[in-house]
Amino acid sequence: MTHHSPATATYYSRENALESLKFLDPHYPESTVCGVLANPANDHLLQYVFAEAFTHVFPGDRTNYPPTRFFSDLDAELASSPLFHLWTEIPLCRYRCNFCQFPILVLGRDEKQAAITAKRWVDANIAEAKLWLKAVPSMRRVPVGEFCLFGGTPTAIPVEELIRLVSFYMDNFNFTSDTSLRAEGSPDSITRENISALFDMGFKTLTYGIQSFDDALLKLANRRHTGVDATQAITIARDLGFERVDGDLVWGLPGQGVADFIADVRRMLELDFSTIVIIKLHLRSFSEVDTAIGHESPAAWQYPKVRERIAKEGYRWPSLGEQYQMREAAVTLLEQAGYYEHPTTYFPKRVLGPERWRALNLDQDKQYPQVGIGLGGYTWSSHSEANIVTVPREYLQHVDTGEIPLETVTGISDTERETRSVRMALSTCQPLREEWHRCRFPESSFFEGRWADVFSSMAQRGLAIVDHRNEMVSLTLEGKTLVEAIINTEIQ
């Protein structure tokens, strides 16, 4: 029997999608989401997941929005917010993974040149941050809820550059005793020296991508670490005193079976990660959608001929049915171990709660502004949003001439503001509360008019539970699995 997965099919047809959905691992139960997706009433959701689209930004609906108004919107909203999320991106990695679509640059193996490159990008990031402080004065005064040092791979740059970058932010933004500091790394770049330096500066949370503990799959993906390296990284962090260590896995890798992915999840549980992130492999180009910010050139696995060659070498691409078997089996294991989904794809220990930066951004009762500084950075308030250019040379040219290198700026209409708030809240996989919604949008209700129709339809199709008595709307297990598809097709 042949089948087509999103990674191998070249076009959508319901026949192709259903064939992939029905191709299962006989050793595991059929995923319940397969039945939901097979329902003709949910064909739009099947088409979405088959297309491999990905969401990590929420664009506005008013194009040609003036940057001056965007800065004014952000300044005003920051001034009335108790805190905000600040993240800075150093887009440098030692190599590019074969599936990576994020805007990064490869440092290369020449250590001297890598150090020069790192200094150049830290200089540029600091220069951009100074421009933001000038354009948005409230940014200097409002407390930072969580500061995230992201990438790229920040731990790939020299320790002295890490210290210089973080020191600048601490000296120029309102870091308080309540500010959380989070750093991102990779198993091959996390050393006792660099994360000890981060810990000494106040970082207590470390997150890093593992993707798999299977060394053959890691090599295929062009990862330069092993499963043993991933284990050593969390050991180093715990020995130093990090309070929270979060790690990422990917499901749907070529050559990965359901049992393989479940073995990875079990290993994460054994290592006692604070949050276990399980991410579906996405290969559709970010440039084709408006919900993601991507690299200027395709990842290796996005080329059809490369995918075909990998399959011929014996690394079969998992079908949709197998992928959802992976997800549901993993969710069962995680819930049994005391983890829960908050937000989508993120499974923190229930006793710890969600990663703070995600809660600040998305939780229905918060949704505080976010500021992203660096190549591909994303910033928003409830009235407008913008992202930074993703082409390195353009970024550096703008910063060198004293301009914040905005690529797109969109405004958010009153109607879209409400829709966007609901989309963000749904993406947390937590119940939507009528009280919180009415507090922000007094003329609206989840149980009347537009929203009543939306959620009633979702309930009829097995995606949501409408609880009139407790005035809440919750996603079902299947709704949580498909939440990205739901918010980008139905909550519009």
Give a structural overview.
- The protein is α/β, with parallel strands linked by helices and about 500 residues long.
- Strand 7, helix 11 (about 260-270) and strand 8 form a beta-alpha-beta unit.
- The strands form 4 sheets. An 8-stranded mixed beta sheet has the order 9-8-7-6-5-4-1-10, sandwiched between helices. Strands 11-12-13 form a 3-stranded antiparallel beta sheet, with helices on one face. It has a 3-stranded antiparallel beta sheet with strand order 14-16-15.
- The protein is globular and about 55 Å long.
- Mean pLDDT is about 95; it is low at about 1-10.
- The two termini are about 40 Å apart.
- It has helices at about 15-20, 30-40, 45-50, 65-80, 110-135, 140, 160-170, 190-200, 215-220, 225-240, 260-270, 305-310, 320-335, 355-360, 390-400, 415-425, 435-440, 450-460, 475-480, 485-490, and strands spanning about 85-90, 90-95, 105, 145-150, 180-185, 205-210, 245-250, 275-280, 345-350, 370-375, 380, 385-390, 405-410, 430-435, 465, 470-475.
- The protein has a domain at about 65-360: tm_1862 like domain (pyruvate-formate lyase- activating enzyme).
- About 50% of the residues are buried.
- It has 20 helices and 16 strands.
- Helix 5 packs parallel to helix 7 (about 160-170) and helix 11 runs parallel beside helix 13 (about 320-335).
